[in-house]
Prior knowledge:
It is a single chain. The protein is of the alpha/beta class. Helices cover 34% and strands 18% of the residues. The chain has helices at 22-30, 57-60, 71-74, 87-95, 112-121, 134-143, 161-167, 181-189, 202-211, 221-230, and strands at 6-10, 35-42, 48-50, 101-106, 128-132, 148-152, 171-173, 193-196, 215-218. The chain has an 8-stranded parallel beta barrel, surrounded by 6 helices. Helix 1 (22-30) runs parallel beside helix 4 and helix 9 (202-211) packs across helix 10 (221-230). The radius of gyration is 17 Å and the shape is globular. The two termini are 14 Å apart. The model has no long low-confidence stretch (mean pLDDT 96).
Amino acid sequence: xxxxxxxxxxxxDPYQHRENTxxxxxxxxxxxxxxxxxxxxxxxxxxxxxxxxxxxxxxWNDPRQVNRVTAEQLADLATPGLxxxxxxxxxxxxxxxxxxxxxxxxxxxxxAAATWRTVSDLNLADRVAFCGSVAxxxxxxxxxxxxxxxxxxxxxxxxxQRLLDELRPSYLNPPFGLVDERLVATVHDAGLGLATWTVDxxxxxxRMLDLGVDSLTSNRVGLLRRTIDQHPGIRxxx
Length: 238
């Protein structure tokens, strides 16, 4: 019987709360996420904060780039119950639970050192994993030889063996549109798990599960959790 598939919440639970905020992270954990994926950017003073975009425009109605704003200045954007949290605060939320990970998504290598320093200072290396670009994951691997890595990938074939040997990823992480039976088999034959994103429709979740994927990322983590748990042949974790 197949082992339990990992349910990853994309930026928390954005259907319930604004993405990459503490309420979104907490809601995703309540909904049964095995991991909560968050994006990390650095402020002007080098503080890792949860934000996907390089500017504050889309979510916080401020045209400035986040790397031009200090962590203290971000407080000016807060509304009652809603603000841009630091990575430390998000890690503290996850640390209060038993098991789920924080999956830290890095678009480039720049935030890697400050991010890993934050994780290490809190002694939470066993509660995090990383995903992102080749450059970002190479930076993570240099800093953290034992860290779990999910390599974001946009091609329907495996990376070169040299790169796999250097990165030692646990998962290859392509978008779901690239996932087919052949790719799943190739990834598994290489000794890797197959993760995919961003899967929001039940029929797509079921198709990915039928193909044998090992980890799915969704904006609808409650639906994903139920779909995984109800899928034939998938053993529920005890």
